[in-house]
Amino acid sequence: MRLEAIAIKSILRRRQRALFLILILVTAVAIVNTLYQLNRSMSLEIGDTFDKLGPNIIISAASSDHDLSYGGVSLSSKNTEANHLIADDYMKVYQIHDRDSIAVVSPKLVDVGVIDNQQKALLLGIYFQFEEQLKPWWNWQGKLPFKENEVLLGYELAQKLKKTVGGTLILENKEFQITGVLERNGTDEDQILFLPLLTLQDIKNHGERISFIEVAALCSTCPLPEITEQIRHVLPHSNVTGLQESVKMRTDTVERIQEFMVIGTIVIIIISSFVIGMTMMNYVYDRRVEIGILRAVGYRRLYIFEMLLTEALILGTVGGLVGYSLGTFFADFITPYLIHIPLTITYSWTLGLTSVAATVGLTILASLVPIIRATKIDPVEALKI
Length: 385
Hints:
Helix 2 packs across helix 10 (301-338) and helix 8 (244-285) packs parallel to helix 11 (349-375). It contains twelve helices and 14 strands. The chain starts with a helix and ends with a helix. Strands 1, 5, 6, 7, 8, 9, 10, 11, 13 and 14 form a ten-stranded mixed sheet that branches. The chain has a two-stranded antiparallel sheet with strand order 2-3. The protein is an alpha+beta fold. The protein has helices at residues 3-13, 15-52, 89-92, 128-134, 155-161, 197-203, 224-234, 244-285, 288-296, 301-338, 349-375, 379-383; strands at 57-61, 68-70, 73-75, 85-86, 102-115, 119-126, 140-142, 150-153, 168-171, 174-182, 192-196, 209-210, 212-217, 238-242. 54% of the residues lie in helices and 19% in strands. The protein folds into two domains: 3-48 and 251-383, no CATH class; 56-242, no CATH class. Strand 9 and strand 10 form a beta hairpin.
């Protein structure tokens, strides 16, 4: 009878022991695979989410005369700079080598105006379709401006002016319709009047000039320093600044998640190895009589070693396959209940084969000590039991 056939028959004769061992393997592999799938998907999704939550690169004109500030960035409102930025400059950002790493580019113009001849306020000209992508946390009452005579008010500015959605205001002797009011967000934006970029350029006689450009770059696909250097190359007359704090926050968050998952995985592997080793020891111990008979009829120690190792190989393979399948299913199933981030959990041949190979290797390593001890059983002593 072939070695594989003997091993399979032996497993079938001891179904309860074999099923218990497989259950341990399946549980360990399923938990480890679940943690790994969540770790990998969360790292990618959280990284991409951070990449899309606001700008991480600021492009401004090379100027020494700064008289305005927006979002912590010093800017110039004067139209006398030789190296000022123009509206078309934002398109040049998409000419860099790593343009696929650019999520959003939003040009802006900053100025100051007097509303209704009484309230001085910061004016920000933007493309609302870009700003909505750049700042997905924005919430507002009403709707975003669509026409050239429509504006959006920051929360506190609207309170000071006592204006609401549907009202009007006068700016530079022109009447504007208030289509929306931003909800309070605790930043400079609460004090700002937002209007279309082209409108602000027109009423303030800025021509094509803009103040700065905000860029949201995908840090997961290209390092930020490389992107900023490429932007400097296409816009040599500008200052390009990478906001390292946002990148560091992204990196720290992903690393903490990975550390937690790795520690959890290591603990589970250690515990599983110990339990598998103890289970295999009992599995082999209960077969002392069988092993003694095999030794008594002339089977060599190497043959018994190979037979027990084959059983461990079969059990490890079954446990790895079932554990990987259940782990992937479980990770996909629990994600909506535990994490409010859309994660992509998929079956992977590479990951599946790796899981099976790792499970088989772990089972064999944990089984070596009891198997080696089994090959040293004295057939005479075993037959006395």
